[in-house]
Write a structure and sequence with these properties.
It contains five helices and 14 strands. The strands form two sheets. Strands 5, 6, 7, 8, 9, 10, 11, 12, 13 and 14 form a ten-stranded mixed sheet that branches. By secondary structure, it is an alpha+beta fold. Helix 3 crosses helix 5. The termini are far apart.
Length: about 230
């Protein structure tokens, strides 16, 4: 059995040899490696990478796994809810070596014809299988799941965070419970593979009021290089 402390990884978006926000990904890799007790060696990036690049540290060795882009960027997404995988409090929230439960969730999502899985724990959305959810309420507050609940930190969110604030939104961590989600003006899903997607349906229920203000702010913050 592969344990969570066996490896640490991050997935970076690459276009024709350019890896977007690589510095932020390597910073997160180091942070998560420290939590998991994994030393990060020198990482030399190969030339001409293109696609979704998984950089993994396992047994002191660096490996690169490149997959093609498999979804439309900045899409309108339909999602389903799935019970969140759980590990110890220390391991939750890291990109660790026991990632197979997340892969199985993604397979389940695609098998149902959905675009994304939103992970539920203690009656709240805490994360997504490949995205971080942002819930905009009617008062202009952008709610994110409190990191104490076990969601994985998002590089894409870090890139967009200041632009969201500059647009006049207030960012607040909390519990993304059923009432908040059902009454949301807009839910944006941020991730390396999907960019800034807007959730329109969740478990066959319409989501949001049709506005896309928050999504457009995030798309602008990510820039044209994501296409």
């Amino acid at each position: 059995m592969v344990g969570p402390k066996s490896a640490v990884f991050t997935t970076v978006r690459a276009r024709k040899g350019k890896l977007f926000h690589l510095d932020l990904h390597l910073e997160r890799l180091a942070q998560h490696g420290k939590i998991l007790g994994i030393e990060i060696p020198e990482i030399k990036i190969p030339d001409n990478l293109d696609g979704l690049v998984r950089i993994e540290i396992n047994s002191g060795k660096v490996s690169f796994d490149v997959k093609p882009f498999y979804q439309e960027i900045h899409m309108e997404a339909e999602g389903i809810t799935v019970p969140a995988p759980r590990w110890t409090r220390k391991v939750n929230g890291t990109k660790h070596g026991d990632w197979q439960p997340y892969r199985e969730i993604t397979e389940q999502v695609f098998s149902k014809g959905a675009d994304v899985g939103l992970l539920i724990h203690d009656y709240c959305i805490i994360d997504g299988d490949r995205v971080m959810p942002l819930v905009l309420d009617e008062n202009g507050v952008v709610w994110i799941s409190d990191n104490k609940l076990g969601g994985v930190s998002s590089v894409t969110f870090d890139v967009c965070k200041q632009a969201i604030k500059d647009a006049g939104f207030i960012i607040s961590p909390g519990r993304l419970n059923e009432r908040l989600v059902a009454g949301a003006k807009e839910i944006v899903l941020l991730g390396t593979g999907m960019g800034a997607a807007r959730l329109t349906v969740l478990d066959d229920v319409d989501i949001g009021d049709g506005s896309d203000n928050l999504q457009q702010v995030c798309i602008s913050a990510l820039g044209s290089n994501w296409f």
